[in-house]
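Weekly puzzle thread! Below is a chain. First person to post its structure in token form gets bragging rights.
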Amino acid sequence: MAPSVGTRLGPFEILGSVGAGGMGEVYRARDTRLDRTVALKILPSHLSDDPISLERFEREARAISRFNHPNICSLYDVDQEDGVAYLVLEYLEGETLAARLKRGPLSSTELLRIGREVASALHTAHLHGIVHRDLKPGNVMLTRSGAKLLDFGLAKHPGENAGADVDGSDASVSPTRSQRLTKEGTVVGTVPYMAPEQFEGKEADARTDIFALGLLLYEMAAGTHPFEGSTPAGWIAAILKEEPRSLSERAPSVPKALDRIVQSCLKKDREERWQSAHDVRIQLDWLEDHVEPAVPSSSPSKRLSRREWILVGVVLSLLGAAGVVGLRSNRGDRELPPPVRSSLLPPPGFAFEHDDFAISPDGTRVVFVALDAAQKYSLWVRTLSGVGAQRLAGAEDAMLPFWAPDSRRIGFFTRAGKLKAFDLATGAVKELCDVQFGRGGSWSRDDVIVFSPATAGPLLRISAAGGDPVPATSIPPGDRGHAHRWPYFLPDGRHFLFFLDWSAPGNRLGSGIYVGSLDAVEPKLVSSGITGNVSYAAGRLLFVQDRRLMAIPFDPVRLEPTGPPAPIGEQELEKDLAFSRSGFSVSDTGALVFQSAADNPARLEWLDAEGNELALIPAMRYRDPRLSPDGRRLAVTSDDSGNGRRVVRIFDLDRGVSSRLTEGGIEEMPVWSADGSRIVYVSFDGESYELNEVPADGSRPPRSLIHGGKMIPNDWARDDRLIFMSFDKGPPELAVLSPSDGVVTTIGPGAEAQLSPDDNWIAFLNPGRVYAEIIVQPFPGPGARLQISNGGGGQPRWSHDGRTIYYVTPERKLMAVTFDPERQSAEAPRELFQTRIVSPNFVLFQYDVASDGRFLINSLPSENDSPLTLLTSWPSQLEP
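Winning reply:
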């Protein structure tokens, strides 16, 4: 029996019926706890005993719970009451796209906006391994805040075989009814909006949704479906065999470039379609920027010129090829085409390692590091004029590749502590020298390589032919700290840019971007306000600030900026958590490759001891997770506004409510006091660092504990001794701050420290020449050291009984080691499961352990096929 107005399901009071479909009845309801209006989707009583219907109902909840996106209807809760299963969803006011289409086609402005929003929603779903499989006008709601994608009841989940299983008895059902998902070979979806491969019993993937997206775009433009059918068999035959009439015929006012986009979506062979929803969104983004808004019918229609549309067609036809346009330093009368974005996908079965790629100086190739399913690293090269990539033999375990000026040789580091060079012409690999942990290299036109050999200290230089490295920079006498990283040669081949980090207050050389020289002249400060890696091209320095890629005019002769900076793109680039590096690379030809944070949405995820996914924390841009001692609250670093300004937040795990604890700026890496009443965190004001203490309930303002050079809190003992990392000498050292007198005592070199539950032991990362290893020793010491890891590790954590130490290997495996404090011994490491943690080490703690044995991990998507973004002719958008 359908619930009536006033009926309660748990805390939800029914206010009225919204509608009903084959798989659910939807009601408007009031959440009496939060006094907000929600939508309840209730499984009809006649289906509640049907295991297939119940499975579909539950799969919708599982699908929506994986992501939080402005263009996807949000799931608030799932529950049962007296045998009635229901979902609690965001209540949306508006009309479906199906209802809107009854009034005819949409304007170009409406179409492009809705198309972009749906493509963005699909892209997020695909990143989480979800294929919708039932995209149709009835499942898109148009609201004041934008389009919302609905109904994931037929979605394909990660690892699920997605065949179809229609038998003959189902062939006569209504073409708008979803078919049964019961056995191998059935059709899953709504027939008029299904792709050819679904009818052929093939597994659905992201490109299946792209076909349906093409149908939606066509229908919004023309006001009619591109295929015709009156029965399921008729629809199937049309979709499998017929070619749709072009939009130019059915809707002559529609831009031809849109027709090309749609036709690519509707290719019978999915290999010929756009390969990701992200690609489609990029094309619609570009098109939206070049379509004039609609004008009243009494006025002449304003449209792009024929020349402009020809240019659009040419650019779109080149996507998937290089898209690279030659760029002269002095353009003269040459006119550059507008910038165009496209996506570069990783090889099948691999994922791009985060921010680990470089475009060749001539703009024809990209070298990148990829990971396989076992998280093994390999080096690849792909040409931008093709779709395939070549794996480079002998370059395994590579990291941080960089090109020679001839675009034929590649320098790279290995995680085993080597600097090497690869010759693409011969396939030869040459070992140049040993390094501790490379932090960037650059290759001059005179075959000199300048590189950072360690996490701290000066840069070195070496001939590309080999030999002994010698210093390329120096640290002034008396200066404390100093880490010189990310060198980049200027066009003269003698001067190079680099980033100076970890400089202590009062040093002669402070942190910032400098220009060094092979002629051993003292470095010149370029800017103290720019941090991280920088590049030079088209007369500008490129860098990341507030998550936005910026370009500032720069004179390579006078070695100084000559104008104000300007943004190249949106706020979508991040800096890594330890070494301030951002993922972008620029060629000499006007091409730029970067990794957008929007395509790499890490989330905090609960997993059990076997690595099974349990739930997600429903918020984005959280990192540095720290569970409170009672396990009911979570402290995190949060980029609330998506602009790189970080704050500390407290998340109530019982209520799902998050509160901001700090004011904003650079405030991060929270640590709980032993009783859970206080938080300590680090703040940075642009010049110095400060460790601050604040009540966890925010009842009093923060108070400063210590300030000076770079420092990071690690753990807090029960007697209030604070363990932190100090960078005053460059490489990190572990230190202890006494609360009674403010005295700081140094333990020794180390990082990422955590105390055992009884405070008698400390586990930490001990940097080595090749691999950093996990060490345990008595706290505060002295005492013998015991190595816990084998073959490298990071982020040590203790179990709540103090008998197990966890850590993450370089391959992102979560390991466990049984520790006996009485005997001061440890067993051999054992693998628990493969994680998708954002990084295995040098990022502080990106996971935590609950008292019941669960793990909360800052994880990348389960199907991490996030693309790289290629942007061509970027300097043209900076012209006045």
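Puzzle host: Confirmed. Bonus trivia for everyone else. Confidence is low (pLDDT under 50) at residues 161-187, 292-334.
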